[in-house]
Amino acid sequence: MREDLPGIFCLEGEWDCDITRRLSVRPVLELLEHLEVAQWVHRDVATRAEFTYYLGKWVSEDYDDFGVLWLAMHGDSAALSLSGDEDGDIELDELEEMLKGACAGKVIYFDSCSTLKEDPKRLQQFARRTGARAVIGYRKDVGWAEAAAFELLLLQELVTRVRSNGIFKRLQDDHPVLAKRLGLVVATKNDVYRTALRSSGTSS
Fold first, then answer.
1. N or C: which end of the chain has fewer CB within 10 A?
2. Buried b (16+ CB within 10 A) or exposed e, 91-112
3. What is residue 175's DSSP assignment?
4. Which range has the worst mean pLDDT, 42-46, 113-117, 172-176?
5. Predicted confidence (pLDDT) per residue in 93-102, tens digit
6. The Cα angle at residue 92 between residues 88 and 93, in degrees rounded to 5
């Protein structure tokens, strides 16, 4: 793995109660590595203890080169679910406290259903209190195949671009169907950019 490449730090929850299934976002990371776009760290997190432990690793100086945190797991409005069990739920408020002031210049990508289906001011607060350059995710339910296709494009943008509003405009202009279908949201401490949702289908 090339250590001179920008880094992605991925924490992935349990997708299915059947642990023999091999569904994972790891192949996307491997492809990004093969394309010499990014280096990466990937860890499975099924419990709050695991999640907290590896989140602490990401914010430490040892992983300063990994400027994108990718949270790949089930979700709901303002929440993440590590294993589908309520005991494994992480609320946005709680994550904000965990990351308070620790994300300067970094990006947090919520690859989860509807997690950013929140009031724009609330999302701006999250970006402001964590210090994140951008908070990115969706305000609709996310289909696996659609998200996988989109996140390959999205992650390349996140590790190579600087301006968050530029990232949003480029993705929306170049991939409008996927951006709208997923309900793309890009939030900063000053602004929130959201794709307009179609009148039919999942509502906002």
1. N
2. ebeebbeebeeebeebbbbbbb
3. S
4. 172-176
5. 999 999 999 9
6. 110
Q: Is the residue at 204 inside a domain? A: no
Sequence letter at residue 111: D
Hey, what are 56's tokens?
A: 């602490």
Torsion of Cα atoms, 147 then 68 then 40 then 15, to 10°: -40
Phi, psi of 69 (to 5 degrees): -100, 120
d(CA 134, CA 157): 12
Instruction: Say if residue 170's pLDDT is above 70.
Output: yes
CATH number at residue 32: 3.40.50.1460
Residue 32 to residues 63, 161, 175, Cα–Cα distance (Å): 18, 15, 19
pTM for the structure as a whole: 0.91
Query: Residue 202 domain-assigned?
Result: no
